[in-house]
């Protein structure tokens, strides 16, 4: 008699799983981040990703990426020597890094473009988002992203930054602009916000729609990759703080038409770049008037009490992170009299779709 209820529960669970199992739609198309002429990887309308790797002599091939499956997506060998497979579930919308493991060795997918992340060049795949229009390449006036090399006495070398200047910057030689210093996350570099984040396209579209004040964005290497994964607590902010506040900012103010004062200068960053932002804005509150933490920690009223008051504190994360902490922190800041804004990206985690959306929400609030 005791086995009947157990059997009934098992059948009910099986039926439940079957009822809610998702049928994969066979409308796969090449990812927008594929190498020219490459058909794979592919994505479908539901967010599944499909891979095809040529490794005829391999014994095992696996794809490791974001939410592509528990333990990675194992590919199956076909008669022609290609290995194929589809993620066991749909991916979150937006950009994801991934790599291929072939017989224990880690490789990039020859079909995909590469992006610097996880302290190495990784393959990239884009899952089309329902709201991707805000970072789409449109027929609007475009700004310019240029590489600059600035001298750094503190590190004994020249360092690199990328500078976005808004549309019209080259034409009106008398106009000056506010500046946002925008930092990448751990394992990334100064190319991330333009390549993975589409920061320039986000700004171009906002400016074209008259939704934000035009401003300059400066993106530089945050000296984060010297810290091993899991050793973030060992990171020392002082070397990068010196590079940013004593070398890069003076260089930008001397070589670009900036409004060189606290009320027209912001700092924001994603993940570890948020941690850098918080630390530097607390150490140098006279330098920045606007703060942004994108999946990068929180401010509490006691952190900033007695310091020059920020004109805006923007804190965001994905709904799959810890949104309650973000909303509570902002409520506490508002209660203490600070101009604070929270934003939670729907159905995303610690990933670039969260940060793209965050920049899109934050930019119109800057330099009011």
Automatic annotation (TrEMBL):
Pfam families from the entry? Esterase
Keywords from the named record: Signal
Leader sequence range is: 1-21
Listed InterPro entries? AB_hydrolase_fold (IPR029058), Esterase-like (IPR000801), Ig-like_fold (IPR013783), Ig_E-set (IPR014756), Mycobacterial_A85_antigen (IPR050583)
Question: What's the domain of life for this entry?
Answer: Bacteria
Quote the protein name from its UniProt record: Enterochelin esterase-like enzyme
Give the species this sequence originates from. Answer: Spirosoma utsteinense
């Amino acid at each position: 008699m005791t086995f009947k209820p157990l059997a009934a529960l098992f059948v009910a669970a099986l039926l439940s799983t079957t009822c809610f199992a998702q049928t994969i739609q066979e409308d796969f198309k090449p990812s927008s981040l594929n190498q020219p002429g490459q058909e794979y990887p592919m994505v479908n309308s539901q967010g599944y990703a499909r891979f095809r790797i040529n490794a005829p002599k391999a014994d095992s091939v696996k794809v490791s990426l974001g939410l592509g499956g528990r333990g990675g997506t194992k590919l199956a060998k076909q008669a022609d020597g290609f290995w194929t497979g589809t993620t066991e579930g749909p991916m979150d919308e937006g950009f994801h890094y991934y790599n291929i493991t072939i017989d224990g060795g880690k490789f990039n997918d020859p079909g995909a473009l590469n992006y610097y992340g996880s302290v190495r060049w990784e393959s990239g795949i884009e899952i089309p988002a329902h709201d991707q229009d805000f970072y789409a390449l449109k027929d609007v006036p475009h700004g310019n992203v240029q590489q600059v090399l600035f001298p750094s006495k503190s590190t004994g070398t020249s360092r690199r930054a990328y500078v976005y200047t808004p549309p019209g910057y080259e034409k009106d030689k008398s106009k000056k602009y506010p500046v946002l210093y925008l930092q990448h996350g751990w394992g990334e570099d100064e190319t991330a916000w333009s390549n993975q984040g589409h920061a320039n396209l986000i700004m171009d579209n906002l400016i074209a729609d008259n939704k934000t004040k035009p401003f300059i964005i400066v993106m530089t290497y945050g000296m984060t990759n010297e810290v091993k994964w899991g050793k973030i607590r060992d990171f020392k902010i002082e070397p990068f703080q010196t590079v940013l506040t004593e070398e890069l900012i003076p260089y930008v103010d001397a070589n670009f038409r900036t409004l060189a004062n606290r009320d027209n200068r912001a700092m924001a960053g994603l993940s570890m770049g948020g941690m850098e932002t918080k630390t530097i804005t607390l150490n140098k509150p006279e330098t920045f008037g606007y703060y942004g933490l994108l999946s990068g920690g929180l401010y509490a009223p006691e952190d900033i009490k007695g310091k020059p008051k920020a004109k805006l504190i923007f804190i965001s994360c994905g709904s799959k992170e810890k949104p309650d902490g973000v909303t509570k922190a902002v409520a506490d800041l508002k209660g203490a009299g600070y101009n604070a804004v929270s934003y939670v990206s729907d159905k995303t985690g610690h990933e670039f779709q969260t940060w793209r959306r965050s920049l899109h929400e934050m930019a119109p609030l800057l330099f009011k």
